[in-house]
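fyi for ur records
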Amino acid sequence: MENTIISEGKTTNEAIQNGLRKLNVPKDCVEIKVLENEDKRSFFSILTPRIVKVQMTIKEVKTAESNAKKETVENIIKKDVELSKQEQEKAKENIENFLKKFIEEMPEGTTYKVETSESYIYAEINNKDLGYLIGYRGETLYALQNVLSAIASKGIDKKVRVILDIEGYKAKREKTLEDLAEKVAKTVIRTKKPVKLEPMQAFERKIIHSKLQSNPKIDTTSIGEEPHRRIIVSLKNR
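which gave:
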């Protein structure tokens, strides 16, 4: 996939739109430089067709390997802290006190478990009727995960990272995303055109990057800002 192109049009806006269609990325993901402006026309060029040229370059182009590393470091490792045994028990107690009351409002038979480690606290809530706690693409689950992180950190002079799963959603989502990655890669190889995926959570983007980084024909690029950050899957430059 080309990272820099020259696009043409009868107006600057048309040239930019033509370039965006060719690059298959939103406008805020490219740097634009006008090479020839429609206003700069002399008397002798009045009768010639009006053409505006712009140079367009995709921002933050990275390989799959570097993207996967960036996702891991920025979105996971930075949040990890080393918790002492005392801090682990305090964080666990905080979460359990909350969940004991929380599941009273949940469907009958709802259970939970909390496990500790030096870098994060793992919490799991189980009941087949908790789809509303997961939400669309896990949005509610991640919001609840942030709440639990704040609760776990009470009385501790550190931000405790909490990983929450509900009824095995994350494992199922991981399988879905891996299947999606393979399907999109085949489409890109067949059509020789890049595919832009919908915005995803950092956890989900990491799965896509990791699944495709070993494919010798495929490159992945993360573009945009949270919460609209997304992946573009394209052919690797030879």
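The CA atoms of residues 58 and 123 lie 39 Å apart. thats all i got for now
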